[in-house]
Amino acid sequence: MSDTNTQRREFLKTSLGAAAVAIAPGMLLYSTANGKTEGASSQVRWGMLIDTTQCKPDCNDCVTACNTENGLSGGKSATDSQWIRKIEIKDVSNGRVTSLPMMCQHCEHPPCVDVCPTQASFKRADGIVLVDRHLCIGCRYCMMACPYKARSFVHETLTDQNPDVPRGKGTVEACSLCVHRIDKGQIPACAEACQNKAILFGNLNDTNSEIYNKVRSVASKQIRADLQLNTGVRYQGL
Question: Which domains does the chain have, with CATH numbers?
């Protein structure tokens, strides 16, 4: 075999191996400052507990922070992406209205992943549900499957993007829990921006974490718990 053919085979072997590692569901890798790569751990389950009693109807700090952090336009047109939005839920039995932020619920059993024909929608080992824009074909099946209407389709060419949050025209996207911040040891932008401390972020599996203990000490609910999706986002005060 010629040296050229040998080199070509080695190149293809290396390239394909690297690609497989990069897109393997549940093992999305990221580079650290010293060039190492680390995988998401199944020992971790990232999630949020949102105290609706502290969420003010006229406050949109979490939405603004999300838009700024992820390079979103903030709903300037009907087709703009919206990763987090404020909604109001009315209790028909007593008329009580509750304001709360709605985003991807990062389900343990995400229906968006089940219907995706290309595996572009996937769940990391640590429970974060993401979209690989390189695999997304824009079919929007995941948007129809999501019971929370938490996904958006990118209709226009994008400019001035945050390099840590790559986006692309013709693809679907949603709240990523600011995965680029989590992988650096930071908390999501919405939780950091909430002045009323209504959004508590942490590891739902860590018995020493504040969120683990609070979920077990206060009454909290999942939105559409009847679907048995085991969401990573819980709401207190509903």
Answer: 1-39 (no CATH), 44-236 (3.30.70.20)
